[in-house]
Automatic annotation (TrEMBL):
Pfam families: IstB_IS21 (PF01695). GO terms for biological process: DNA replication. The lineage of its organism: Bacteria, Pseudomonadati, Bacteroidota, Bacteroidia, Bacteroidales. This is ATP-binding protein. SUPFAM superfamilies: P-loop containing nucleoside triphosphate hydrolases. Residues 112-245 form the AAA+ ATPase domain.
Length: 259
């Protein structure tokens, strides 16, 4: 009968260090194992007290797990762009306030369950800013999900037909930050309205949404399409929301001209 790494007896290797490395790896303490392996190849361990050496091993394991968690959160977020706050271009005149971005970069708005609207014409950098904030959230251990709004609502409509909508909404609800990109490109249809309302109701005053849209928030009422649902949606997302309104020429066009 096979035994797995968690139940197999300790290896009877004559080398005590080899036994320690084997146990570290079997317990998935890979950061600690790597640090211990490095110490065996040098003289670091001999120069340290036992408690300092143990502290170093634990710190390396903590750093390894923290980085693995960031990598996992970033992968699961499914960002459209590899965008980072350090890469934001403030030299182009497009109505972007550096001070406001620095305040948003603290992510206090997420911790407070507030929303952020980023509006502006195509190419002004809405999605890039949203993804940059999303990447920063992942670095801080905040579970994030990026989605093109039209594609997400389309998938959820299919899920409703298959009677698995509730399960899909639960997956979205588990994320502390939801990025809905390019919302209201077209008016919502009768099946999309209640789904969007469900998403927003689940997150109201508890979890955050970043919405990017080519239309200003003052036009969203008409884009919802139904006055009653529009009232319910906007009442839950507009109050206490932060907003960035981008102006100017497309960043893609400007880059193409420079090239």
């Amino acid at each position: 009968m096979k035994t797995n790494d968690k139940t197999a007896p300790v290896s009877q290797q004559p080398d005590q260090n080899a036994i320690s490395l084997d146990l570290m790896n079997r317990m998935k303490m890979h950061g600690m194992a790597e640090a211990f392996r490095e110490s065996l190849a040098g003289t670091t361990a001999q120069a340290m007290t036992p408690d300092s050496f143990l502290s170093m091993l634990l710190s390396r394991e903590w750093d390894y797990r923290a980085q693995a968690a960031v990598t996992r959160l970033t992968k699961n977020a499914s960002f459209r762009y590899k965008a980072y706050l350090e890469e934001i271009d403030y030299t182009v005149s497009r109505g972007l306030d550096r001070n406001q971005m620095e305040r948003l970069a603290t992510l206090d708005f997420i911790r407070n369950g507030q929303n952020l609207f980023i509006t502006g014409s195509a190419g002004t950098g809405k999605s890039f800013l949203a993804c940059a904030l999303g990447h920063e959230a992942c670095k801080r251990g905040i579970r994030t999900l990026y989605a093109n709004a039209a594609k997400l609502l389309g998938l959820l409509k299919v899920a409703k037909v298959k009677n698995c909508l509730e399960a899909e909404l639960k997956k979205i609800e588990r994320c502390q930050l939801l990025i809905l990109d390019d919302l209201f490109l077209v008016q919502l249809d009768a099946r999309e309205r209640p789904i969007l309302l469900d998403i927003i109701e689940d997150r109201h005053e508890r979890k955050s949404i970043i919405i990017t849209s080519q239309y200003p928030s003052s036009s969203w009422y008409d884009m919802v399409g139904d006055p009653t649902v529009a009232d319910a949606i906007l009442d839950r997302i507009v109050h206490s929301a932060h907003s960035i309104e981008l102006t100017g020429e497309s960043m893609r066009k400007l880059k193409a001209k420079k090239a």
